Amino acid sequence: MLNSIITLPITLPVLLVCLITAIALGILTALVFSFRQHHTRSFTLTLALLPMAVCIVIMMVNGNIGAGIAVAGTFTLVRFRSIPGTAREISAIFVDMVIGFTLGMGYIGIAVIFFLLASVLTLILTWINFGGTSRFEKQLKITIPEDFDYNELFDDVFAKYTVSAEMEQIHTTNMGTLFELSYRVVFPEKKIPKEFLDELRARNGNLNIMIKDFAQIETL
Predict the structure, then answer these.
(1) What are the pLDDT digits (tens) for 124-155?
(2) Which residues, other chains included, contact 62 with Cβ-Cβ below 8 Å and sequence gap of 6+?
(3) Measured between alpha carbons, how far is 43 from 136 in angstroms, rounded to an integer?
(4) Are 145 and 205 in contact, with CB atoms under 8 Å apart?
(5) Peptide bond before 9: cis, by omega within 30 degrees of 0?
(6) Secondary structure letter of residue 107 according to DSSP
(7) CA 218/CA 138 separation, integer angstroms
(8) Closest-CA residue to 21 (of 97, 117, 111, 96)
(9) What does the CA dihedral 79, 80, 86, 92 come to, rounded to 10 degrees?
(10) How far apart are the C-alpha atoms of 218 and 220, rounded to whole Å?
(11) Cα(204)–Cα(185) distance, rounded to whole angstroms?
């Protein structure tokens, strides 16, 4: 069960078994890593097809050191030309790569066992919100004119509507005529009161205010 099924030269039945297994595990991996997460359609499609692509490449370079080095260089170029994703998305890519490499060497049993362990662990940790927070935490960005004193400018508003608000960053924008203040804000409930935004707008001269999740900006 844990031995490789590949013998040289590679036969058509062995090739089909490895590729079909790669397709099946790729689709299942895409479903597992999409559990309670939002991914683009292109990323999900990539997860479904990547193990098959890696599998066939490994089969073709098996035993050829020069070809293996060339393939490693190709994967490096793809990594640096790709758009940075979240840590979870990069983990999914690594899982897909491992499955593809293992199947490319003919170890179907090991690939299936690895997929099952990775999937069960991913689903359990996602279900229990491992490493997450039960607080309703957001990133808040407020734009103010350069002549405003940002120190304690919104403290009373934060005290009224939030559990905590911590300033993380200040930088200038619009040729130095505006300040953009970034805060980590925790709300007492899983909703953002409209009155909170209204009071901020009245305080910052009705300039831009943006609120978003920290998960949306997570990168390695």
Answers:
(1) 988 877 765 556 788 899 999 988 988 889 99
(2) 6, 8, 104, 105
(3) 27
(4) yes
(5) yes
(6) -
(7) 13
(8) 111
(9) 0
(10) 7
(11) 17
